[in-house]
Amino acid sequence: MNSEEEFYDAETGLESDDSCEVSFKDACVFESKQTVNGKVPSENGVWERRTTLPAPMFSRNDFSVWGFLKKCIGMELSKITMPIVFNEPLSFLQRITEYMEHTYLIHKACTLSDSIERMQLVAAFAVSAVASQWDRTGKPFNPLLGETFELTRDEEGYRMISEQVSHHPPISAFYAESLNQDFSFHGSIYPKLKFWGKSVEAEPKGTMTLELSKHREAYTWTNPMCCVHNVILGKLWIEQYGTVEIVNHSTGDKCVLNFKPCGMFGKELHRVEGHIQDKSKKKHRVIYGKWTECVYSIEPKVYEANKKAEKKSGGDSKKHKQEQSTGGDDADEMPDVQETVTMIPGSTLLWRVAPRPPNSTQMYNFTNFAMTLNELEPGMTGVIAPTDCRLRPDIRAMENGDIDTASREKERLEEKQRAARRERAKDEEEWSTRWFQQGNNPYTGAADWIYKGGYFERRYSELPDIY
User: Fold this and answer.
1) Over the stretch 319-347, which tens digit does the pLDDT of each residue have?
2) Region Disordered: start and end of each range (predicted)?
3) In degrees to the nearest 10, what's the CA dihedral of 460, 101, 126, 109?
4) Which candidate in 10, 15, 61, 219 could, as Cys together with 193 as Cys, close a disulfide (CB 3.0–4.6 Å)?
């Protein structure tokens, strides 16, 4: 496969649980509504979003995964054209937007006067951002160069724009802001995927930056590693692992989160544990929970006392100790998921995941939020950019259950992109991004893509025809 044939297709107070539970329930507002053909009827002229896809996912049982992947062992999958059977009907730009599902945590942080309390909610937001990946074993479509995705949620008080700014290497840039200018959230992601024989490892390179304008604060962090196990045989399962360090560049506060690998006996599967410290390295809170379920905060002394009590009672005996996995292939089968998170007395609930809809397993294991992302709402066409991935025909066909058309359209779009690249090379033209520009993160100094502004003024006249 030469370079011309390559096409990457990978891709206010916190006194009790109740204060956070109100926001959690608000986030699930669509769950109890009655639907008509998968859509919630409008009320008082306000369109409510769909709760299902037009068609259920297709079976992958007749596809020989090994027949394809045996050629890819040890390779970075960004250089491989992937069959559509691996996909889910969303673009990677839409998958990035799932970070915003729990935006109420940021809104809540903006109202708090104490920096440690704000850090607690920022940490919960960082954990919640990966929660939707649980059981999501389908791969999002890789965005075409110049592809965009806009998400505006007036009822949740934010809007977001993302753009595919590079093809080789594949880089996606995004920018979100609150409608009342309380915060902005932005970053760029360069996902690196590798196949290791039985598993696929995803490293989401890139820095997340959250700015709280009222408090003149900026937080940065990177996301944990993700590994999908049993891609050849057995039940697919996902783990997140690695250390995530959230830094408040204004106060010097820091939160260190350890996403634990499952280990030999699965005791640590999905678990997250860490602490918040100030600039003098004094620990103020311990954070614990599971990225698939919930996150709690507690005083360090209480947490340590509870740990000692567990040890004394034999809850941490030698027979349970385990070597940590590295996200590789130590175990093929998914370990039995251990007991749910036990709340330690004195803990504060920061976040709890919203239940998935009853039809989720037939809908690519989508969350309620994910189910809405590719919907073309009334009046949207002509407002969103013509490069928006809601208008992408291969994703639309797959969502509608027409796999043959989706495959043909995917192939057509890949060839159209290659032809455009050849034409630019012939004319010695460089690709020019529209909404983001290359630069450095203002807080870390790392390479980043910075939003130039102007998207929401709706000036689309010079956008390329990519579909």
Assistant:
1) 444 444 444 444 456 665 555 888 999 99
2) 308-335, 403-428
3) 100
4) 10
